[in-house]
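Entry 0007
Protein: tRNA-specific 2-thiouridylase MnmA
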Amino acid sequence: MRVLAAMSGGVDSSVAASRALEAGHEVIGVHLALSKDAQQTRESARGCCSLEDSADARRVCDKLGIPFYVWDFSDRFKEEVIDDFVDSYERGETPNPCLRCNEKIKFAALLERGIALGFDAVATGHYAVIDDDGYLRRSPDDKKDQSYVLGVLTKHELDHCLFPVGDTEKPLIREEAARHGFSTASKPDSYDICFIPDGNTQAFLGRSIGMRPGMIVDTSGAELKEHDGAWNYTIGQRKGLDIKTPTHDGRPRYVTDIDAATGTVTVGTREDLAVTTIRADRLKQLHPAMTGEFECDVQVRAHGSVVPCTARVGESEMTLELHEPLSGVARGQAAVLYLPTDDELGDIVLGSGTIIATA
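Output (structure tokens):
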């Protein structure tokens, strides 16, 4: 096959490209330029897609003897990831920009161009497995499993994906990279939002949205404090509320609801964060079992927060009745459904939806 290796400049994509080449594929390395003004170096931030990362990716491709290109997706990235991130906060949601980048850029946009140029598949360094039936599974490395952020793909996109490192634990990937002499072998993992390299999300949102004063209230509606903008807060937040009036019982307060239209931020107890029902739209079906009513597991964050549920899937929305309550579930997050299995491979990803309401 002709394979596009998406080269982030990290160790995982380096080994993914190497393994795709060893498997006999014709491999071309591509680094995605997602900013018109990429950082020269990451310095203290550990984001991705900087000029330093591009140089690291090029060195790996040179060592492998494969062509390397940089594709400029910065305009599309701004529109579909950065602008979406800001718009979501304006609506009182808590988006996951890395998940949206996977959905809109690293697979949809890259694959669209790749297929137009005659490529058969995109290979990435994600930790997930595609089984013999073409279904997405969890990685055996529980600590690095990235099937959650891949649950937003379409079946068409998944059919053109390769995850060469998904069946291997991370320490072994680093050892393999070192054997190849890749400079990325000991490179730290990225975790910052790449378009907020200093990590100050509130400052970024303040510049993007501006001051929109509103009120923090308790669950009875009593006004506690004025704020500068609802975008400063997320569901489940405890720190940084700076409310001078203590609760009558001394218990800490948490953000339990955000009404962006009125600028009202509601705070309550930890118990008020408990969610037993989730509604989601923007459905993506990756397995035929994701239809009608069925039992499955649901995950609402990239790491952890997995509980069994009863799912009822319609044409455009699904409702999940959780068998155990989850805490701090926010609108804008993805609800990814899994079918637990007893075989040696990980749980099957059924599909996903974007959370629009909880109760």
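Curator remark: DSSP finds eight helices and 17 strands in the chain. Confidence is low (pLDDT under 50) at residues 40-47.
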